[in-house]
Amino acid sequence: MKSKFLIINKIVLSFAVLALVGCTNLDEKVIDEVLGSETGDPEGALAAAYSQLGEGTFVDHGSVFALQEYSTDEAILPTRGSDWGDGGKWRAMHEFTWDSNSDVVKTTWNQLNFGITRSLNAIASIEKSNINNKALFLAEAKGLLAYYTYTTIDLFGQAPYRDPSNINAPIQIRKAETTIDDLIKEVEGLIPNLADIKTQNTHAGRFTKQAAYAFLADMYLNRAVLKNKTASDFNFLEQAVNGGGTDMDKVIEYSNLLINNPNFNLESNYFHNFDINNDTSKEMIFTIVQKKIASSDKGSDNDLAYMSMERIQKPSPDNRGTNANCVTPEFYYSWNGNHDDPRFQRTYQYEDGTWFRNDGTDVSVPSTSKVEGTGKPWFHFNRGLQVGQQYGPKILANGNFDMTADGRIKVYKLFTEKNTTLAADFTPELNFDNPSEAVFTQAQINRGVRNFKFEFDPGYGNNGTSGMDVPLYRLGTIYMMRAEAYFRSGNVSAALTDVNKLRTSRTNDALKGNAPGVALASLDANALFRESGFELYWEMYRRKAMIRFKKFDLPGTAKPASQPYRRIFPIPQATLDASKDFSQNPGY
């Protein structure tokens, strides 16, 4: 019989499991009253630790994604007319006006702390048990603790910890500059007890040896930054923690273990990595499994697709987007000369051969594609960066798509839902009336190129749950990290080879003759930075890359030049008020 944990995790943590560890509001409870609370069910406790990767933390646009992407040149969520004002909390992330009372900062801190708490609970519960696979489950729990801690020290410079074996142990504050080395040692020490992916009933949603290799490559790539994030320069060639070569040598070493593993291969269709059925992608190393068992499962989220889509863009009669975030002009124009790159856009083709070109030539598309659970017609929008006038279906008064006499979905020129005379024409330029404030009038709400990289799941409401697994590490990430490690080690030719492997392994849709991407002839630091954006945009990678490449402090759209202290977010004031263990980060 399979372990209860294996069953729970495979179907993504049923909502019954989520009750095993109660959500505690860190604004009301002192942190050290939360850390150390236990659950008597070790497998349920581990399932709850995995669950917190979802539950908004890494899947909702307003948590880790907001801090890692809205603070960069890739993504922005402006105020659009009467929508998305919310006290300015979203645009503050791009205007660099956040402070210790910022709701987005506080939410992210709390959710990551829940992850740390649940991981500590799992460790304590497993250590006291005699369950089967005890060593494996304990290693996974410790791996999750390290991942939550790493993300927390990356964003906030410090993270809480308590000895899980002693409920009365004092709280400890782990600082980034010292903790990064400890985390590397801890994760390296877990490897013997972790399973290889696809053995012992594991998959990409579990913390396997391969997840550990990817995580270690990430930590080594960013180790120099974590040791002194506000420095004017970083020593990427420092001796590695174990003394075996440099940090970049270790990035290459751990990347090799994944790139040379036959379980992983680059997908020729780049966007398959972000499809609803991306669990079949051969790139997935460590993911947040979002496959649903019930529409009320709160562990998954459709935000990565829902947030960019205009309200008038309807994948089914029951769904719409929300007309919120977009890419910045800086990021869009970085693709100049690369619009034929297969990662830029992909056109959808229906089973009967009909293409949705989204250029005004479409009259109708088949209605044979149906939404699971409702049987209603599913209109498939194109993927990637969407610019210009948009087209799609129209909803009739009866709540259904307007159809042709022979049962096809009619395609119309679209106008914004809240200003029905304003064409849904997405422009690269944002052109705020006040350049320092990301605020649009109602007449300007359609501005900004939208990102349809992630497939919209129409089966469970608008911004509800999604069946798409959110990749934390995939093979494309690893190639990009190894390319940067080669480059920083002075091996530019090897870096160029890796970049070109990513470019040429991806192919366009059949409308473009399935043409592969074009190789680069040379590579410098700016080109490498652009390539990291092409491969990893909106995957919660950009902020770290911008800091490493010395781009984060530069001015941009609605963003002034900023001071180095902004590379770290403040500890929420509510936490400082509740606990004397933390001290505020410099500058705040």
From TrEMBL:
Cellular component terms per the entry's GO annotation: cell outer membrane
Similarity annotation: Belongs to the SusD family.
SusD-like N-terminal domain boundaries: 88-221
Every RagB/SusD domain range: 282-588
Localisation per UniProt entry: Cell outer membrane
Entry keyword Amino-acid biosynthesis: no
Keywords: Cell outer membrane, Membrane, Signal
Name assigned to this protein: Starch-binding associating with outer membrane
Endpoints of the signal sequence: 1-19
Presence of keyword Signal: yes
InterPro entries recorded: SusD-like_N (IPR033985), SusD_RagB_dom (IPR012944), TPR-like_helical_dom_sf (IPR011990)
